[in-house]
UniProtKB/TrEMBL annotation:
Protein name per its UniProtKB record: Acetyl-coenzyme A carboxylase carboxyl transferase subunit beta
Top-rank lineage group of the source organism: Bacteria
Oligomeric form and interacting partners: Acetyl-CoA carboxylase is a heterohexamer composed of biotin carboxyl carrier protein (AccB), biotin carboxylase (AccC) and two subunits each of ACCase subunit alpha (AccA) and ACCase subunit beta (AccD).
Residue ranges annotated for the CoA carboxyltransferase N-terminal domain, each copy included: 21-282
Length: 282
Protein backbone atom coordinates (compact mmCIF):
# COMPACT_ATOMS: atom_id res chain seq x y z
CA UNK A 1 0.00 0.00 0.00
CA UNK A 2 2.83 2.35 0.90
CA UNK A 3 4.40 1.95 -2.52
CA UNK A 4 1.27 2.17 -4.57
CA UNK A 5 1.76 4.76 -7.25
CA UNK A 6 -0.60 7.63 -6.92
CA UNK A 7 -2.38 8.40 -10.15
CA UNK A 8 -3.06 12.10 -10.24
CA UNK A 9 -6.01 13.18 -12.33
CA UNK A 10 -5.26 15.88 -14.85
CA UNK A 11 -6.99 19.16 -14.06
CA UNK A 12 -9.47 18.79 -16.91
CA UNK A 13 -10.33 15.25 -15.75
CA UNK A 14 -10.90 16.54 -12.25
CA UNK A 15 -13.53 18.89 -13.59
CA UNK A 16 -15.59 15.93 -14.80
CA UNK A 17 -15.82 14.52 -11.29
CA UNK A 18 -17.46 17.01 -8.98
CA UNK A 19 -17.01 16.68 -5.26
CA UNK A 20 -18.79 13.82 -3.58
CA UNK A 21 -19.23 11.71 -6.71
CA UNK A 22 -16.74 9.16 -5.42
CA UNK A 23 -16.50 7.75 -1.93
CA UNK A 24 -13.61 5.89 -0.33
CA UNK A 25 -14.47 2.78 1.71
CA UNK A 26 -13.10 3.26 5.22
CA UNK A 27 -12.59 -0.49 5.55
CA UNK A 28 -10.87 -1.61 2.32
CA UNK A 29 -9.93 1.78 0.87
CA UNK A 30 -11.59 1.05 -2.49
CA UNK A 31 -12.91 4.12 -4.30
CA UNK A 32 -16.59 3.69 -5.17
CA UNK A 33 -19.10 5.47 -7.30
CA UNK A 34 -21.54 7.18 -4.97
CA UNK A 35 -24.61 6.25 -7.02
CA UNK A 36 -23.62 2.56 -7.08
CA UNK A 37 -23.10 2.62 -3.31
CA UNK A 38 -26.47 4.26 -2.80
CA UNK A 39 -28.17 1.60 -4.95
CA UNK A 40 -26.42 -1.04 -2.85
CA UNK A 41 -27.83 0.44 0.41
CA UNK A 42 -24.38 1.88 1.20
CA UNK A 43 -22.73 -1.52 1.42
CA UNK A 44 -19.22 -1.62 -0.06
CA UNK A 45 -19.32 -3.67 -3.27
CA UNK A 46 -15.75 -4.86 -2.63
CA UNK A 47 -15.63 -5.84 1.06
CA UNK A 48 -19.30 -5.60 2.16
CA UNK A 49 -18.45 -2.96 4.77
CA UNK A 50 -21.63 -1.21 5.85
CA UNK A 51 -21.21 2.55 5.56
CA UNK A 52 -23.00 4.66 8.14
CA UNK A 53 -26.44 5.79 7.07
CA UNK A 54 -28.66 8.27 8.86
CA UNK A 55 -31.74 7.43 10.90
CA UNK A 56 -34.10 8.62 8.14
CA UNK A 57 -32.64 5.98 5.83
CA UNK A 58 -33.31 3.29 8.44
CA UNK A 59 -36.91 4.49 8.62
CA UNK A 60 -37.19 4.08 4.83
CA UNK A 61 -35.47 0.73 4.93
CA UNK A 62 -37.27 -0.94 7.81
CA UNK A 63 -40.73 0.51 8.38
CA UNK A 64 -43.93 -0.21 6.46
CA UNK A 65 -44.56 2.61 3.97
CA UNK A 66 -41.35 4.20 5.31
CA UNK A 67 -43.60 5.81 7.89
CA UNK A 68 -42.81 6.74 11.48
CA UNK A 69 -45.40 8.50 13.58
CA UNK A 70 -42.67 10.51 15.28
CA UNK A 71 -43.10 11.60 18.91
CA UNK A 72 -41.44 14.49 20.77
CA UNK A 73 -39.69 15.72 17.62
CA UNK A 74 -39.31 19.16 19.19
CA UNK A 75 -37.40 18.14 22.31
CA UNK A 76 -33.99 19.75 22.32
CA UNK A 77 -31.12 19.89 24.79
CA UNK A 78 -30.30 22.69 27.22
CA UNK A 79 -26.68 23.69 27.78
CA UNK A 80 -27.08 23.20 31.52
CA UNK A 81 -23.35 23.12 32.34
CA UNK A 82 -22.60 26.15 30.16
CA UNK A 83 -20.04 23.97 28.42
CA UNK A 84 -17.67 25.81 26.05
CA UNK A 85 -18.81 25.71 22.41
CA UNK A 86 -21.72 23.35 23.14
CA UNK A 87 -24.42 25.70 21.88
CA UNK A 88 -22.45 26.35 18.70
CA UNK A 89 -21.83 22.65 18.03
CA UNK A 90 -25.46 21.87 18.72
CA UNK A 91 -26.64 24.49 16.26
CA UNK A 92 -24.33 23.31 13.50
CA UNK A 93 -25.43 19.66 14.07
CA UNK A 94 -29.05 20.77 13.89
CA UNK A 95 -28.45 22.58 10.63
CA UNK A 96 -26.50 19.68 9.15
CA UNK A 97 -29.04 16.97 10.04
CA UNK A 98 -32.27 19.01 10.08
CA UNK A 99 -33.01 17.36 13.44
CA UNK A 100 -33.38 18.92 16.89
CA UNK A 101 -31.38 16.09 18.49
CA UNK A 102 -29.69 12.92 17.29
CA UNK A 103 -32.44 10.38 17.88
CA UNK A 104 -35.98 9.89 16.62
CA UNK A 105 -38.66 7.64 18.07
CA UNK A 106 -42.30 6.93 17.46
CA UNK A 107 -44.89 4.42 16.38
CA UNK A 108 -44.70 2.33 13.22
CA UNK A 109 -45.50 -0.99 11.64
CA UNK A 110 -43.15 -3.64 10.35
CA UNK A 111 -44.74 -6.33 8.22
CA UNK A 112 -48.10 -5.19 9.59
CA UNK A 113 -47.04 -5.63 13.23
CA UNK A 114 -47.23 -2.47 15.36
CA UNK A 115 -43.92 -1.57 17.01
CA UNK A 116 -42.29 1.27 18.88
CA UNK A 117 -39.24 2.29 16.88
CA UNK A 118 -36.25 4.46 17.76
CA UNK A 119 -33.12 5.20 15.73
CA UNK A 120 -29.97 7.14 16.55
CA UNK A 121 -28.10 9.31 14.07
CA UNK A 122 -24.30 9.22 14.20
CA UNK A 123 -24.18 12.34 12.03
CA UNK A 124 -25.50 14.37 14.96
CA UNK A 125 -22.44 14.97 17.19
CA UNK A 126 -21.22 11.39 16.77
CA UNK A 127 -24.49 9.97 18.06
CA UNK A 128 -23.41 11.08 21.52
CA UNK A 129 -26.10 10.45 24.12
CA UNK A 130 -27.19 13.57 25.93
CA UNK A 131 -30.12 14.00 28.27
CA UNK A 132 -32.64 14.44 25.44
CA UNK A 133 -31.55 11.27 23.64
CA UNK A 134 -31.72 9.38 26.93
CA UNK A 135 -35.17 10.83 27.60
CA UNK A 136 -36.41 9.92 24.10
CA UNK A 137 -35.12 6.36 24.43
CA UNK A 138 -36.68 6.10 27.91
CA UNK A 139 -40.00 7.38 26.54
CA UNK A 140 -39.83 4.90 23.65
CA UNK A 141 -39.31 2.06 26.12
CA UNK A 142 -42.18 3.31 28.30
CA UNK A 143 -44.47 3.58 25.26
CA UNK A 144 -43.63 0.00 24.29
CA UNK A 145 -44.54 -1.11 27.82
CA UNK A 146 -47.82 0.85 27.90
CA UNK A 147 -48.90 -0.17 24.41
CA UNK A 148 -47.52 -3.71 24.78
CA UNK A 149 -45.81 -3.41 21.42
CA UNK A 150 -42.35 -4.77 20.61
CA UNK A 151 -39.55 -2.22 20.83
CA UNK A 152 -36.85 -1.80 18.19
CA UNK A 153 -33.89 0.52 18.68
CA UNK A 154 -31.23 1.13 16.01
CA UNK A 155 -28.09 2.33 17.79
CA UNK A 156 -25.10 4.25 16.46
CA UNK A 157 -23.07 6.14 19.00
CA UNK A 158 -19.66 7.13 20.23
CA UNK A 159 -21.03 7.10 23.80
CA UNK A 160 -22.00 9.70 26.35
CA UNK A 161 -22.05 13.41 25.47
CA UNK A 162 -19.22 15.01 27.39
CA UNK A 163 -20.80 18.46 27.11
CA UNK A 164 -23.57 17.28 29.43
CA UNK A 165 -21.33 15.55 31.96
CA UNK A 166 -23.19 13.65 34.65
CA UNK A 167 -26.57 14.45 33.06
CA UNK A 168 -25.45 12.39 30.11
CA UNK A 169 -24.09 9.52 32.22
CA UNK A 170 -27.29 9.17 34.24
CA UNK A 171 -29.17 8.33 31.01
CA UNK A 172 -27.47 4.94 31.14
CA UNK A 173 -29.15 4.13 34.45
CA UNK A 174 -32.46 5.68 33.41
CA UNK A 175 -32.80 3.74 30.15
CA UNK A 176 -31.63 0.50 31.78
CA UNK A 177 -34.21 0.89 34.56
CA UNK A 178 -36.97 1.43 31.97
CA UNK A 179 -35.82 -1.70 30.15
CA UNK A 180 -36.02 -3.69 33.39
CA UNK A 181 -39.70 -2.68 33.66
CA UNK A 182 -40.26 -3.64 30.02
CA UNK A 183 -38.64 -6.99 30.71
CA UNK A 184 -40.93 -7.58 33.69
CA UNK A 185 -43.84 -7.24 31.32
CA UNK A 186 -42.20 -9.73 28.91
CA UNK A 187 -42.29 -7.39 25.95
CA UNK A 188 -39.80 -8.03 23.19
CA UNK A 189 -36.92 -5.62 22.67
CA UNK A 190 -34.80 -6.00 19.53
CA UNK A 191 -31.56 -4.03 19.61
CA UNK A 192 -29.88 -3.32 16.26
CA UNK A 193 -26.23 -2.35 16.49
CA UNK A 194 -24.70 -0.40 13.63
CA UNK A 195 -21.20 0.98 13.04
CA UNK A 196 -20.10 2.11 15.56
CA UNK A 197 -21.99 1.43 18.79
CA UNK A 198 -19.68 2.04 21.70
CA UNK A 199 -19.15 3.26 25.26
CA UNK A 200 -22.14 4.53 27.30
CA UNK A 201 -24.76 3.45 24.75
CA UNK A 202 -23.25 -0.02 24.33
CA UNK A 203 -22.96 -0.28 28.12
CA UNK A 204 -26.67 0.45 28.58
CA UNK A 205 -29.66 -0.08 26.28
CA UNK A 206 -27.80 -1.22 23.15
CA UNK A 207 -26.54 -4.39 24.81
CA UNK A 208 -29.76 -5.15 26.73
CA UNK A 209 -31.88 -6.44 23.83
CA UNK A 210 -33.74 -9.74 24.07
CA UNK A 211 -32.43 -10.20 20.55
CA UNK A 212 -29.29 -8.34 19.50
CA UNK A 213 -28.74 -7.92 15.78
CA UNK A 214 -25.55 -6.39 14.39
CA UNK A 215 -24.73 -5.14 10.92
CA UNK A 216 -21.59 -6.79 9.46
CA UNK A 217 -18.23 -5.30 10.40
CA UNK A 218 -19.61 -2.81 12.94
CA UNK A 219 -17.31 -1.70 15.74
CA UNK A 220 -19.05 -2.64 19.01
CA UNK A 221 -17.70 -2.30 22.51
CA UNK A 222 -17.13 -0.13 25.51
CA UNK A 223 -13.63 1.18 24.89
CA UNK A 224 -11.92 1.36 21.50
CA UNK A 225 -9.25 -1.23 20.61
CA UNK A 226 -6.40 1.31 20.67
CA UNK A 227 -7.08 2.36 24.26
CA UNK A 228 -7.36 -1.27 25.38
CA UNK A 229 -4.05 -2.14 23.71
CA UNK A 230 -2.35 0.79 25.42
CA UNK A 231 -3.84 -0.15 28.79
CA UNK A 232 -3.10 -3.87 28.85
CA UNK A 233 0.10 -3.61 26.80
CA UNK A 234 -0.92 -6.46 24.48
CA UNK A 235 -1.84 -6.79 20.85
CA UNK A 236 -5.51 -7.61 20.34
CA UNK A 237 -6.72 -10.43 18.08
CA UNK A 238 -7.74 -9.59 14.52
CA UNK A 239 -11.33 -8.44 14.11
CA UNK A 240 -11.54 -7.63 17.83
CA UNK A 241 -14.85 -5.93 18.74
CA UNK A 242 -16.26 -6.26 15.23
CA UNK A 243 -19.76 -7.75 14.84
CA UNK A 244 -18.50 -11.18 13.77
CA UNK A 245 -16.09 -11.37 16.74
CA UNK A 246 -18.90 -10.34 19.10
CA UNK A 247 -21.18 -13.00 17.59
CA UNK A 248 -18.54 -15.68 18.17
CA UNK A 249 -18.15 -14.53 21.78
CA UNK A 250 -21.85 -14.47 22.57
CA UNK A 251 -22.44 -10.70 22.75
CA UNK A 252 -24.51 -10.61 19.56
CA UNK A 253 -27.25 -13.04 18.44
CA UNK A 254 -27.22 -12.53 14.67
CA UNK A 255 -25.14 -10.60 12.17
CA UNK A 256 -27.45 -9.49 9.40
CA UNK A 257 -26.72 -7.63 6.18
CA UNK A 258 -28.61 -4.38 5.82
CA UNK A 259 -30.33 -5.91 2.80
CA UNK A 260 -31.84 -8.63 4.99
CA UNK A 261 -32.60 -6.49 8.02
CA UNK A 262 -36.27 -5.80 7.36
CA UNK A 263 -36.96 -9.44 6.42
CA UNK A 264 -35.27 -10.61 9.59
CA UNK A 265 -37.38 -8.25 11.72
CA UNK A 266 -40.57 -9.43 10.00
CA UNK A 267 -39.65 -13.06 10.70
CA UNK A 268 -38.90 -12.39 14.36
CA UNK A 269 -42.05 -10.31 14.85
CA UNK A 270 -44.09 -13.10 13.28
CA UNK A 271 -42.78 -15.59 15.79
CA UNK A 272 -42.86 -13.35 18.84
CA UNK A 273 -45.72 -10.94 19.41
CA UNK A 274 -47.06 -9.39 22.62
CA UNK A 275 -49.82 -12.00 22.55
CA UNK A 276 -47.11 -14.62 22.44
CA UNK A 277 -44.46 -13.14 24.72
CA UNK A 278 -40.78 -13.84 24.58
CA UNK A 279 -39.45 -16.15 27.31
CA UNK A 280 -42.77 -16.36 29.25
CA UNK A 281 -41.15 -18.40 32.07
CA UNK A 282 -38.01 -16.25 32.32
ZN1 LIG B 1 -14.81 -1.80 1.28
Amino acid sequence: MWFKKKVEAKPDEKLKFPDGLWVKCESCGEIQYRKALENNLWICTECRFHFRINCRTYIELLLDDAHLDEQDANLEPVDILDFPEYKKKMKSAQQKTQMREGTVYGFAKIGGAPVVFAAMDFGFMGGSMGSVIGEKIARAIRAAREREHPLIIVSASGGARMQEGIFSLMQMAKTSAELALLNQKKILYISILTHPTTAGVMASYASLGDIIIAEPGALLGFTGPRVIEQTIGEKLPQGFQRSEFMLEHGMVDIVVSRKELRNTLVKILNIVSPANPVNPNG
